[in-house]
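Sequence of DnaD N-terminal domain-containing protein (Thermosporothrix sp. COM3).
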Amino acid sequence: MVVSPEDGFQCQIRAGNEIEDFKRKFEELYETGFLLEGFTSVPILAQRWYRYVPGKPLYDREGNRLSEESFLTPTEFALLLTLYSYLEEEQIQPSVSTLAMHLGKSNRQVRRYIARMSQKGFLHVTPQYGPDQQQLANYYDLSPFFQRLYAFLESFGHKKPRKQRKKKQK
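Predicted 3D structure, token representation.
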């Protein structure tokens, strides 16, 4: 499936009163502590294009190629976002059972999603071990997804964002 950013998106613009109502409700939630746990800012380009970012070919257990390209499913993207939310929490790595609780899936399903995302080339998983060589948790590297996303977008002429330089004060 080939989709390009030039295809565009349809969007609806809210009326002025609806925007004010939304702002008021948002502020009420914040004041009651709803957002005190924190929030995650997700790049819009990741939200819009994750389903079209090509991954590695998939193979079965015997080594036969099943597909030329692979893509993230909505559930795999939800898992990626859940892992992404932990990046801002001082590099705390969630357990499989914590991820399963967040996604409403079983531990076994989450392990399968992680393995499949790794096989597709969207995620690197590094086991972490304690001094007694018992596995503590996994370290999840999400950079492969973002590298693939940037390559996909650049293939359509979208430029990678540059870091802004700080202006010198006189």
